[in-house]
Amino acid sequence: MSLRPMGLPPVPEQTVRVARAAFPQGSLAIRVRDRLGEVFTDEPFAEAFGVRGAPGLSPGMLSLVTVLQFAENLTDRQAAAMAIRAIDWKYALGLELTDTGFDHSVLPRFRARLVGNGMERVVFDRLLEYCVDAGLVAAGGKQRTDSTHVVSAVRDLNRLELAGESVRAALEALSVAAPDWLARAVDVPEFAHRYGPRVDSWKLPGSKVKRDQLSQVYGQDALRLCRAVWSPDAPAWLREIGAVDIMRQVLVQTYTVRTSSRGKEVVSKREADEDGVPPGHLRLASPYDTDARWSAKGDDLFWLGYKVHLTESCDNTPPEAEAEAEAEAEAEAEVRGRPNLITDVTTTLSTVPDVKATAPIQQQLADRGLPPAEHYLDSGYPSAELIETARSRGTVMVTPVLLDRSAQAKSHAGYDKSAFRIDWKARRVRCPQGNTSTGWHPVRQRERDAIVVEFAKTDCQACPVRPECTSARRGNRMLTLYPEHLHTVLAAARAEQKTKTWKDKYALRAGVEGTINQALDITGIRRARYRGLPKVRLQHAFSATAINVVRLDAHWTEHPLDRSRTSNLTRLSYRLTA
What we know:
- This protein is of the alpha+beta class and about 575 residues long.
- The chain contains 24 helices and 13 strands.
- Helix 4 (about 75-85) crosses helix 5 (about 85-95), helix 8 (about 160-175) crosses helix 9 and helix 8 runs parallel beside helix 11.
């Protein structure tokens, strides 16, 4: 397929006339075409297409279809149908009223081409560039970030179901790729009886004994199939089939192979306490989505999938708990000034902690020329190193740092770190009873520099307040400190976040929860449409683009979103707390 850059075609006169008559007040699709037509051009996609072959549909037009699809939360079939029957969509795409549109299968092929060429964020970045040029978003303001869970597009499988379904997926792939070889390698009728239907289409045995027996059968079949594929007589290319390699990984992660005292080979399921299991970030959870991972948040949320981080500008948003009058003033300011727009979207594996996403998010904002002066985040994002690094680059992280979690600090009765006087130059620490440390040991802990301070056992054992200071079996108190510059940063942040001024300022962060809720309501961002991290990243990039388009439309029409989202009960609450 070749590309001849043309961009969106001019809107035919008849389409203009009918669309203006049908939508005298305009519509989202019409306003997007009139104001953002220059965003949806073909040139940014040139590297994804060849110069030979039959010309394909304009990627600029398909990207506009995809944005409108996400803005209205449509399936591929519904989006393709809208391009045929919706007058405002025909206007946006520059089509004749009699145009028959395109087949819905064009959209997944277009997305696959974007993913294959690393162009998941092209449209999102193009729209941000337009907003920067139009003065709707700029560097140096306030931005806020939060994350939410994303449920994968595959069924949840327990370990037994995963073992069986991975064998079934490998057999399905081999049945198509090498049917003759498979017929010679295994007993096809027996395997067809066991793996013909999906594992989740029938009820698993109720007793533990029978489930263990079935698990052993799955493991033996997987081992037998792996040995057949990796035998010298088998074609080498069979090992490159994705489903076969996934089956091999599931076999290694789920089973152990031992030789009994009688010399018999025994395949048994791994037990976490005895045999060990892979850590969560490596453990496969589905043979159809190798990037999806199980993760948990607190005691209530447990999901299989991914995590998405949304960052938005918030220069015009007052704290959430302000009175209704201030909320109304903010709505008017948004009409006159700049709307809150999503400036970054980052998708990670569900097992990646928020703190690992902080630096990439801030780097991506800097690369777009949109570094914030103040970055509002929750307590999962900061660390002493990140706070210092961000400050050196001109960004103040407004975020609560984790407090001292030692037993003494939790009890509010013992001597926590703040009770000790640190002499950094002399490399000594003095305890509240006047004793001086005897050890100062620079170390590496969890890939970070740290300092372990040790007090003499003779001093601690004779100390009259020892129970309030330490309960360690070794008998003496030890402290773990950050290097001086990081310790100072952390101590200052902990002191500042206790003030009322900081708490009032930090209330601004709460507004990002509404952005996540809007993304959920409009685009269904918490449920993955596709399989695999690259495609889920593409989904979230288009979701963020759709949210920005919706917000820009509300800004253009002077219809702020806040008014329609604020209930009467919330307005009454604002009035009573004013």
